[in-house]
Every structure is written in C-alpha cells, then in structure tokens.
Amino acid sequence: MQQIMLSAFLLAFCVWVDLVPLIKKKEKKVLWFAIPSYLIYLILNILVGLNVKTAGLNQIIAQLVKSAMKLE
Amino acid sequence: MKNQKVPGKKITAIIALYLIGSSLVESSVSGAARQDSWFCVLLATGLALLLAWLYSSILRLHPGKGLFDIAVETLGAVLGKIVCAIFVLYAVYLAAQVIRVFEEFVHLVNLPQTPEIVLLIFTVPLVAWQVRSGLNNMANVSAFLLPLQLIFVAITIVLGIKFMDPENIRPILSAKPTQMLKATLGVLALPYGETILCTSFFGEVDQKESPFKIMAFGILIAGAVLVMARLRNLLILGSATVQMYLFPSYDAVSVISLGDFVTRISVLIGVNLVLAGIIKVSAYLYSATLGISRILEIRDFLSPAVSCCLLIAGISSILYSNILDGMKFITIMPYNSVLFQILLPAVILIAGKLKKKAAGGKKWPEKNR
Fold it and tell me: What are the structural domain ranges in chain A?
C-alpha cells in the first residue's frame, strides 16, 4: 500500500507539472506517448504494491538471449 | 535551445561521467579475470577507442546531426524510425537498470529502512528536469562534477596506499586467455559500448570539433578512473574478497581510515557514484527523449522527458526481485549489447557510405527538424 501511495504522489506531481500543461497546449503528439507512459507507470506500481508476482523483465530478456545465442 | 551549440569539452565530461557511473557494477563483468581484471579494463579501454572510431565515422558522414537524424536519413523514414525505436528501448532499459542499481545501492548501504520508491520520488524529478533544461545545462553540470569525481577518486587512492598489498594482484597475467577475453569484452560492452547512445547528442555539438576526439578523451578519462579504481579495490581487498562484494569500490574504501579523525570516507564513493549515476541516467533519458521526438516528429523535442522518466521508473521496479538476480543478469548483458553497439551502428555506417557514394559524394542536404 505504501508503494502505491508514494508512487501516486510522484505521479500526481508529474501530472500537475507536466501532463496538465501538455493537455492545455494540446500537444497531441507528445500526449500519444505521455498518457500511455503515465498509465504504464501507475499499473506497474499498483502490481508491485499489491505484491503480484511477475517474471522479472531481466529474466525474460536473459531467457531470450540464452535461447538466441544458445548459451547455457 | 536547439541552436545553442555545446562545446566538445563539456560533451567529453558527460561521456566520462556516463562511463564512470557504471563502475559501481562494472566488477561483475570483469570479475572472471580475478586479479588481472584491472588489465582487462585497460585492454577494454583500448578497444573502446575502436568503437569510438566506428561511431565517429557515422557522425563524420553527417556533420551536425545526431544518431536518430542519421538513422532516419540513411535508412529511410520507416526503417530509420524502427531503428530509432530499438535504440530508444535500449536507452530506456539501460536507464531503468541503472536507476534500480543505484536505488539498491543507496538502500543497502545508507538507507536500509527507507522504501526504494522514496528515492525515486527525489530522483525522477531531478533527472527529468535536468534533461528538460537541455544538453547545455547537463554538460555544465558534468563539467563541474568531473573534476570533483577525479579529486575524490585520487583522495581514496592516496589514503588507501597504507592499506594496499601488492601481493593481491600477483601473479600478474595468470588468468586463462578465455577468461581475460570474456572479461575484456564484458567491460567493452558495459560501459564503453554504451557510448553509442551519446552519439545522439552530436546534433547539438559544435560541428568544428572532431567527434572522435570528444569521445576518445571521454573514454580515456573514464578508462583511467576505472583502471585506478579497479587496482585500488584489488590491492586493498584482494580478488577473492572483491568477488564477494556487490559494490567493491564502496567496501574497499570503507577500510580506509586515517587515525580517528578521517574515517568512513566511503561516503565519498557513495556520493561520487550517485552523482555520476544521475548524469548517466540523464544521458540515457536525453537520448531516449531525442529518439521519441524523432519518431513522433515532436517540435519541442524535450517535452516527452518527464513521461519517459516515469516510464523508466516504472520499468525499473519490475526488472528483478532482488539485487543478486540483477547482478547475475549483468554477465549476460554483453551478449545482447552486440546488436546495439556493433551491428546497428555498422549497418548505419555502411548504408550511409553507400548512399553518399550513390549521391556522388555530395553533402547531405540540411534538413531542419
């Protein structure tokens, strides 16, 4: 819960200083990237905050590299 | 902001700090060579100059342009933007990796009771606003921090002499050639090969200055620091003990004391590494932001910085469950670096040369973003 609260605090700060001005300026191209990024950040932190077990990104990449390069 | 050209010397400072920032984890990739790992770092520094030559060859073909502009120009809009996206993902991933390691470092050695997310609350705005304020600002900060870094490293070496044992690096060059090769290539990929992302800055660097000299000086300064730091760690702790620690620089320096009044100077290493780490993450973020702006053709090219930094922060939290898993992965990183550090730059260089030849050696038309 602490993780979710603190990440929401950071998110709220960034929305206030970055996202709101972008929306006001109608910077559509930036918003195409910004809104999904904010959402990904929020979702990932909720998952971490709720202790949802996910395969680490490093582990996935390591498996891909190992199978591609036929490493042990 | 775009028209304000940044002096090459300051870019050299960014590159040097960018490379030094990895020294915290660098021992994991060169550890295979044990007491000869310092020699592997030295060899890798020499080989890194070849990489700098490759990268500067790309930049020389397209004066006044950065990596992403060059990729789109040489490979065409679609393929060029795909390559840009690959480099953006690489920069985002590396930045997430570095943020996570620094988070773990501060958490483990200084603030064990503090949740790691608290550190992100301070790091994310700092890095994002550093990038938003432009390359010139980042370069000024680096030019200020680099001498401090060098002084701090020199202090730790001078004060550490009393605690050094030359037997710790003997017998010299006794590691197996395969181990030496593995360690050298490991250090070449992490951190030296990451210089490829710094080529994206060169659209804002004074065209009169040689890209090779700028990169080579940065690599040589960082190489000197990394070799000296590695030797210091080995001479103080010995190779077997260095292997045991996650952050050997911090632990080696924590041994040093001068009477009762100069103790715990390992704080200097912590400060040093965190400052260099912030420059490193800023450099990744700047590169990723430039790439995103090139792909989406955003005029205010630094406006995606904050959202990109949040994305990096989010990804950093799902990289691995604990630092030991993270350190294991670092040994695999050299393999996946081949694509980004050698193959793609080689493709861009060859495509650029062929295109220039087809155009009859004419200069590229100037195209404003």
Answer: 2-69
**Does residue B85 belong to the interface with chain A, where contact is any CB pair within 8 Å?**
no
Strand partners, B205: B6
Q: What is the CA radius of gyration of chain B?
A: 20
Nearest by CB: A30 against B304, B325, B329:
B304
Chain A to chain B, count of Cβ pairs less than 8 Å apart? Answer: 111
- Determine contact: B291 vs chain A, CB below 8 A: no
328-347 in chain B: CB under 8 A from chain A: 329, 332, 335-336
pLDDT digits (tens, 9 = 90+) for B234-283: 999 998 888 888 888 888 888 888 777 777 788 888 888 788 889 999 99
- CB-CB under 8 Å, B314 with A56: no
Q: Is A69 on the interface with B (CB under 8 A)?
A: yes
Cβ contact, residue pair B315, A14, below 8 Å: no
Q: Which of residues 86-125 of B touch A (CB under 8 A)?
A: 93, 96, 115, 117-118, 120-121, 124-125
The pLDDT, as a whole number, for residue A70 is 76
How many whole angstroms separate alpha carbon A46 and alpha carbon B317?
Answer: 11
Q: What is the mean pLDDT of residues B130-157?
A: 93
In a domain, B293, yes or no: yes
Q: What is the pLDDT of residue B260?
A: 74
User: Angle CA(B341)–CA(B344)–CA(B350) in degrees, nearest 5?
Assistant: 120
B154: CB partners within 8 A, 6+ apart: none
- What is the C-alpha to C-alpha distance for residues B342 and B332, in angstroms, rounded to an integer? 16
Question: CA–CA distance from B317 to each of A14, A37, B128, B190, B326 (Å)?
Answer: 18, 14, 18, 21, 12
Instruction: Indicate which CATH number applies to the domain containing B276.
Output: 1.20.1740.10
Task: Please report the ipTM that was assigned to this predicted complex.
Answer: 0.95
Residue B1 pLDDT greater than 50, yes or no: no
As a whole number, mean pLDDT of residues A63-72 equals 81
Q: B57 or A66: whose pLDDT is higher?
A: B57
B154 domain-assigned: yes
Provide the domain count of chain B. 1
For B170, which DSSP code? P
B324 occurs within a structural domain: yes
Range of the domain at B110: 8-358
Please name the amino acid found at residue A55.
Answer: A
List pLDDT tens digits, range B170-222.
888 888 889 899 889 988 998 899 999 999 999 999 888 899 999 999 999 99
- Residue B1 inside a domain? The answer is no
How far is the alpha carbon of B237 from chain A, nearest alpha carbon, in Å? 30
- Greater model confidence, B207 or B22: B207
Q: Out of B120, B306, B335, whose CB is closest to A18?
A: B306
